[in-house]
Amino acid sequence: MLVKVQHRRALGARPRTAFYITAIVILLYWFLLRDQRYRTARFSEIVDLTGPQPQPQPQAEDNNGTHGQTPDITESTAHFVPDNSRENAELVQQPPSDHEAGAIYGNTLETLVEKQGPKLPENEDAIAPIDEDVPFNYHRAYTFSPYPDYNSTAWKSTHAEYVPCIGPTGAEVEDISVFRGRPKDFPEPGFGSYDLLGFDGDVCFERETRLGPYGVATVTDEDGREINWNTVNWGILQHVCRERNKARFESDGPLNEFIAAYDNLPEERFEEEETTAPTTQRLKRALSRRWSGWWDSYTKGDSATPQLAKNMTTVKKEPRTALLLRSYTGKKYTENDKLVIRSLVAELSLRTGGEYQVFLLIHVKEDADIWGDDEEYRRIIEAEVPQEFWDMTFLWSENAVRRVYPKLDWWASLVHNGQYLSVQMFMQEHREFDYVWNWELDSRVIGHHYDVLTKLADFSRKQPRKGLWERNERFYIPGFYGDYDTYFRKYVEGISGTDTVWGAPNLPIINPIGPKPPVATPEEDNYEWGVGEEADLITLSPIFNPINSDWVMRDEIWGYRSDDFPAENLPRRTTIITQSRISRRLIDTMHVENLRGNQVASEMATQTVAFLHGLKAVYAPMPVFFDRPWNGTQLARWFNGGPSGTSGGHGSAMGWGREGRFQGATWYYRANPPQRIYNNWLGYEDTGIGGPQWEEEHGRPCLPAMILHPVKDVEPTELGHSTESKLPY
């Protein structure tokens, strides 16, 4: 109230202030328009480049890491920073031909071509032919099951018994279906690689066989009755599933060890009055009462009891991961939103026996007492969330955040700057989770959720720490760098020289909690340190240095200073789009930093804390496609245009006025293709492609695995003969 009154006084006492502010804004805007450096280049214009060009490296001949050849690091490849003042002059006016443009659109089952050559054994094992014909296509469909061989002899030698879980139909959860092959004209990824991550690039996903079990097609129970989704309780299904498999997982996790040990913050510090910072125990009570008790009755009498193998006396507990789907009050959930949430729960949680658990993380924008009023908490859930998801919903608000982190600056606690604060609150209560995915509700996986997330984690686990931060800060462009583990690694090593990260930086304001390097210098390590170590952070785009990048939030820092250390000296890293997997260790460290009053902008939060504390962070180069046929040299110049060929610093594509380069990508918050390609895939017309009539002529869209962002408010654009608000199938 005091803040509001002060604002009113300030505005009321000086009416001329508004005039001066308006004049300054107009003048600043005029200067920006005058300067060509701030013009956002249209993506379709940048198809060829002038000036010195980096030379592409040869593609790898095999994946065995036996190449003896090292990329030639020349002056032209060592430092190619676009001169932004000449950016407009370098745009080529002639667009690509119609044949080349838009190759990512309009690909259907009628154009599938199977890839020749050997495939990874685990990918071959994941598919099996289905005997029944698919009514809308002459191609044979295959079941797709990328899960471990549960309860096999090998499995039982190290795991407790896997108990299958029941889905919304009353039967065990079934697998989805795919088609073999890939559309013949579909381009290769501009960034990232299928082979590198272990994705099967020779399977294709069509909407009905992919999303049919979740409502695209009619779903019936064991008695043949159509499912009423409002009677399904995905929260209960997940909890029952976890109980059936409780021998596999820890029932709880350790306390946050850094609260007592880090920076001399004893536990007693939080034993204060309710009006100040709540105790750790009080926080747990306030949050846990939302979850405890309501599902207990559903687990009693369950006949499925997990067992240990007879030849085992102990079992290694499996890690668990929470996936938090970010949403907010006022959000209108489309039918497609519901389909996607159902698929996440079924594929990640139910089918795995509880390895994952999916939650809706709802930002309560209204002024409501969700901290102490249970009835108000439940009222908001029932008013804002579809009924089937009520009991998997976790509410948070900025007021609640400020009670937990009273030392944070008010601006730092806003969701725009403190997106992870709610994730940290969740993880302080739910200690049973080893990892958490911060997941955007407007992202879409064309592919299988478990397959994608497992292989991102597998890749990250294999990465050595030597040169990791340097590899992280570059888009991986196969058409320019060649093989990741040979040419790209050597390229980064050569171009970085001695300017490389080796452990946590030595700063007077940080006492790092991460492991120290096993040897004094990276030259003494043969890419061994870190191999087999789980990543504390996994991102889907480069982790770059925002200093001097012109990225708009590069200097948003609160705390992280002392009398001898100004905040602007803080080394930091960032990733655009906050969808990422974070370890409990990293989350706990962030929690304590925020208790101290230290914070950076959301896109920098996980990356900067991992960097400062010497934790393992990995950019996993998922496949990203473009709607223009840029070659590797062009992509490297325009997206790794910073110092020494990095994606940050001067010339960064994430800088102000340069983000237009992403307009034709399948992953960036300003990109156009994600919505269009997803609409077409669902059978909706968009930009002249898709819809019932188009599909009668061309066939159903079918796409290889990829992650799209942003995809917002998906609604039918063409319903054909149907008048219902339902996906066509």
Automatic annotation (TrEMBL):
The chain crosses the membrane at residues 17-33. Residues 58-77 have a biased composition (Polar residues). Keywords: Membrane, Transmembrane, Transmembrane helix. The keyword Membrane applies. It comes from the Eukaryota. Residues 49-78 are annotated as: Disordered. The keyword Membrane applies. This is Major facilitator superfamily transporter. It comes from Diplogelasinospora grovesii.
